[in-house]
Amino acid sequence: MFRGFYTAASGMLAQQRRTEMLTNNMSNANTPGYKADQAAMRAFPEMLLERFDKVQIPTENGLNLPFNREIGTLQTGVYMQEAIPKFIQGDVRETGRKTDLALLDVNMPENGSVFFTVQNGDGTVRYTRNGNFTVDAKGNLTTGSGQYVLDAAGQPIQLSSDRYTVSEGGNLTGENGEKAMLGVAYANNPLRMVKEGDGLFRTENGAELPLAAGTRGVQFRTQQGFLEQSNVDVSRTMTDMMTAYRAFEANQKILQAYDKSMEKAANEIGRL
C-alpha cells in the first residue's frame, strides 16, 4: 500500500516542477532572446518483486526447502530530471532602435549556436542571445541588465554615443570613428551550457567559448535595429500546462484514495 502512496506522491512532485518550468516559459514569452525550457522526465528504477517461501519434502524427517518465486516488476515513480533549453532560432522583429541587435544563424553545424559575449561586474564571462543593448553614462555598451558587451579581444566596447552602426559581419563603427568587432562566440553543443537568470548562459567548466568568426562551417549574420524574440510557443505551452495540471490532479486523487484506505485500516480493521 505504501509503495503506491509514494509512487503517486512522486508523480505529483514531478508535475509540479514541470508546471513551474512551463509557467516560467510563459512569463518570458515576450523576453528577447529567451530560450524555452523543456522537461526531461525519467522513471525511478523498477523493483523486481519475489515471494520467498518454503516447500515441505515428504520425508521421514519432514525436510523443508526454501524457494523464491518471481511476482513481477513494480514501478517506483517518476521525476523531472532537468530542464533543457531549446536553442531554436526565435522570430526576428524590427524595432527601429539602432542599439538593438539580432543574431541570425545562417549556417550552423548540427546543434551549434552563436551568442553575444558579455561580462558581469565581477569580471566573469557570460553569453546571451538578447541583443537589447544600450550605452551607459560612461560610454560602455551594455545589456539591459548591466553586463558589459565584449569585443572579439574580450574587452568592453567603449563608444561616444548610441549612434553607431553594425555590419552584418559584426563590425561596429561609432559616431566618432570608434571601431570594434563584436565578440560573437560559438558553442558546438549549447545543451551543455548552464542557464542563468536575465537570459544569460555560462559554460559548465568556466572555460570561454571560441569566437564564431573564423570557425569552420559557422556562418551568422548581425542585424541592427532588430531583436530576436523568445522561441516560446504560447499555444503549445498552454496545452502542456493543462496536461501537467490534469496529471497532477489524477495523482492527487490516487493519493486521496490511499489516504482513505489507510484511515479505514487504522480505525476499523485495527479494532478487530
TrEMBL record:
Flagellar basal body rod protein N-terminal domain boundaries: 5-35
Domain Flagellar basal-body/hook protein C-terminal: 223-267
A Pfam family it matches: Flg_bb_rod
Annotated signal sequence range: none
Broad class of the protein's primary localization: other
Family: Belongs to the flagella basal body rod proteins family.
Name the UniProt record assigns to this protein: Flagellar basal body rod protein FlgC
Record organism: Mesobacillus subterraneus
